[in-house]
C-alpha cells in the first residue's frame, strides 16, 4: 500500500512537520501525468507527489538526475523518465508520444521547466533575456501544443502551468524571470478560453519562495531575506509539500470547476 506522511503538527517556524503515516488519497489514480523539468527542484517534488496520489508519471528533462532513478525504482510500473528539451518542439512531441505509447494516453500535463538569469535591466544581456524567454515562455507553448492532440483524444484533461508569486510582488534583478512568468499567466488564461469546449482545463500554480529549487537559494541569501521576509505573512519559506498539495488539487477532480485560475501559494505577501 502506498503511504504518505500525515501532517499533524507544526515546527516552531510554522512549517508542517510529519509525525505519522496514513494511506495516500489516490485522487489521481488511473491518470497519466507528464511533468517537464521533472527531475529537479519543484518538478521532482511534483512527480513524487503525483505518484503518491496514484498517478502514472513521466518526467521530461534534459538530464536524468540520480534521484529520478530512485523514484522510478520505487514505482517501476508507474514512473518513467524521457529526455527532452522544452526549447525544441520536436523534443516535446517525442515526450508526449513516448508517454502515450507507454501508458496508453495522457490526462495531465504540467509545464514546469524554467530557468532564471538574475540581473538588473541595465546589466542584463540580450542573450540572457532570450535564454529565459526561450525556456520559460517558448517552452510552455511547445509543451501545451505538443500535448493538445493527446488530451483531445482522451476527451479532456488538465494542463497546469507554473509561474511565480513574483509576478505580483517583483524583486530587483528578476526582470527577465518575472516577465516570463507573467507571460505564462496570460497564456494560461488564453488556453483556458480556447480549450474549454474540448473539456480541457488550464490553470496556473504561482509558488512563492519554497525551500527547494530556485527558491532555496533565495531563502539562503541573507540580503534577500531582509528584503522579502518582512513582506511575508507566514514569516518563512514554503515547503515543497505545500506547493505539491495545491498542484494535486488543481489537476484533480476536486478542482473540476476551476479553470483559467492562477493560484498563489506564497504564504501571504503584503
Q: How would you describe what is shown here?
A:
With 270 residues, the protein is of the alpha/beta class. The chain has a single domain (26-259), classed as Rossmann fold (3-Layer(aba) Sandwich). The chain is 41% helix and 20% strand. The strands form two sheets. Strands 5-4-3-6-7-8-9 form a seven-stranded parallel beta sheet, sandwiched between helices. It has a two-stranded antiparallel sheet with strand order 1-2. Helix 1 (41-52) crosses helix 8 (240-251) and helix 3 runs parallel beside helix 4 (126-153).
Concise summary:
This protein is α/β, with parallel strands linked by helices. It is 41% helix and 20% strand.
Give the CA-CA distance, first to last residue. Answer: 42 Å
> H/E order of the elements?
EEEHEHEHEHEHEHHHE
Q: What fraction of the residues are assigned to beta strands by DSSP? A: 15-25%
- Annotation, overall tally of beta strands: 9
Total domains: 1
Mean pLDDT: 88
Question: Any idea what the shape is?
Answer: globular
CATH class: Alpha Beta
- Give the helix proportion (percent range): 40-55%
Structural class: alpha/beta
Per CATH, the superfamily is NAD(P)-binding Rossmann-like Domain
> What's the CATH architecture?
3-Layer(aba) Sandwich
Report low-confidence residues grouped into runs of 5 or more.
1-9, 17-23
C-alpha Rg (nearest Å): 18 Å
Oligomerization state of this entry?
A: single chain
Amino acid at each position: 500500500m502506498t503511504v504518505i506522511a500525515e501532517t499533524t503538527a507544526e515546527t516552531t517556524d510554522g512549517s508542517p512537520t510529519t509525525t505519522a503515516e496514513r494511506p495516500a488519497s489516490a485522487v489521481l489514480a488511473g491518470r497519466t501525468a507528464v511533468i517537464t523539468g521533472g527531475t529537479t527542484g519543484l518538478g521532482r517534488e511534483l512527480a513524487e507527489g503525483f505518484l503518491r496520489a496514484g498517478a502514472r508519471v513521466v518526467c521530461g528533462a534534459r538530464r536524468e538526475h540520480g534521484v529520478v532513478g530512485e523514484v522510478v525504482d520505487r514505482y517501476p510500473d508507474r514512473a518513467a523518465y524521457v529526455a527532452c528539451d522544452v526549447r525544441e518542439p520536436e523534443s516535446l512531441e517525442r515526450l508526449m508520444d513516448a508517454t502515450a505509447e507507454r501508458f496508453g494516453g495522457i490526462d495531465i500535463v504540467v509545464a514546469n521547466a524554467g530557468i532564471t538569469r538574475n540581473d538588473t535591466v541595465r546589466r542584463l544581456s540580450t542573450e540572457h533575456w532570450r535564454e529565459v524567454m526561450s525556456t520559460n515562455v517558448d517552452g510552455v507553448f511547445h509543451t501545451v501544443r505538443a500535448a493538445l492532440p493527446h488530451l483531445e483524444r482522451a476527451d479532456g484533461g488538465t494542463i497546469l502551468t507554473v509561474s511565480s508569486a513574483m509576478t505580483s510582488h517583483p524583486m530587483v534583478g528578476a526582470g527577465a524571470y518575472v516577465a516570463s512568468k507573467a507571460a505564462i499567466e496570460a497564456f494560461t488564461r488564453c488556453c483556458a478560453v480556447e480549450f474549454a469546449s474540448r473539456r480541457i482545463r488550464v490553470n496556473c500554480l504561482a509558488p512563492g519562495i519554497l525551500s527547494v529549487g530556485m527558491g532555496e537559494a533565495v531563502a539562503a541569501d541573507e540580503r534577500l531575506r531582509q528584503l522579502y521576509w518582512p513582506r511575508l505573512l507566514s514569516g518563512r519559506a514554503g515547503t515543497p509539500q505545500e506547493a505539491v498539495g495545491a498542484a494535486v488539487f488543481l489537476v484533480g477532480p476536486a478542482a473540476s470547476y476551476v479553470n483559467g485560475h492562477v493560484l498563489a501559494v506564497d504564504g501571504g505577501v503584503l
